[in-house]
User: Fold this.
Amino acid sequence: MRLLSKTYWNGSQIRFRIPPQDVTGTPVRLNAVDGADIRGVFWTPKSNPRPKAVVIAAHPRVDFSTHHTYPAFLKAGYGCLGANLRSVNNDMDCVHEKLLLDIARYMRWLKEDCGVERILLLGNSGGGSLFSFYQSQASTAPKDRIAYTPGGRPTGLVDAEMPEGDALVYMAAHTGQGLIINETIDPAVIDESRPMLTDRSLDMYDPANGFKPAPEWNRYSPEFVQRYRTAQLERVRRLDNLAHEMIAEAQQAEAVHQDAGFNRLDPDMQRQIMRQQAFEPLMIIYRTMANLHYVDNSLDPSPRDYGSLLSERPDLMNFQHRGFARIQTPHAWLSTWSGLSSNANTHLTAPKVTIPSLVIHAGKDLDVFPNTHSRSILESLGAKDKDYWDFPNALHYFEPEQGQNDSASLDALMERLLPWVQERVAA
Assistant:
């Protein structure tokens, strides 16, 4: 039984659709200020080997080193940096505050080593909330930046040098990974350690609540929708509490270890305390493919097809091992995937984004919805120079429809996007 989307998780569309001509790709290896190893690829046109204007794209876990917008930007004379972060391909321990240190290092490298003067932040998909978070902190006085992660660890942002971007594009961007989980987590889970136990009254995939066989669209009652959304937040809150309990156990053991009386304890007790201090627990978060929007297109209407980015059968994919936030450390859960705790939330960060900003909505997106995400970003932005574009027939990565092999959707985007960028971040 194939439940996984043929395009999204294989990453087949996050790539050069047409290989760029006469360009140079230079591997980049840097260390963030806290020592983390980060690697990317810097693409430059051979006709302009030291560009003054650069487009940078990054994502918390996806490889953007050959981003599909880059060939058009390169042809127009821009440099393009695919800035992979420390959590690429594995976000199990993804702490967003630390990712900002990675972006800051790339930005400094562009400015200091490459002589770049103008930088466009390309916030595609999860890169939108990431760059919004970065810009909001970069434009904040260092002493006023976020000092501690949601899990209580120092962020390093107060002491970091964080060059600002010159413009920001939210391209098919959601409002934050945590807010995505608030929408997709299954509230029918009764016990996190026994994921098959289900409260049928909260099961969106139960016919008793209005579910019809896939791919027939559903219509949920307003009462069920309200009860469902409330229960989703309740589950997120329970997971937050669990994460804080796990962190507290390690902190308590550390306090005992550092206490003057530690050496007087029995050796077995000392060993147990040190093990507890060193222990790194993992949270397994099952059933995170349960957004009502997947199967009810009357909720935030759009021209989208049935299902999610991950699968055309979310009712079954909900029980597979792949999915959002499946395996997380407590710190990663709180920082990245908890919509109640994460700082990478455009409702919080976009008001501080005052550089020219553009929100691009892909009308047929299966996980980013017009009012829930795109228009709410636009309304939150603090920028005076801001705009909203809707491409009603575009998919999430502006890829061709399944079975087709054309670049019409991407070409239409870039034909319009390049003039907007050139007016604000001249090549």
Notes: The longest strand covers residues 23-31. The chain has a mean pLDDT of 95.
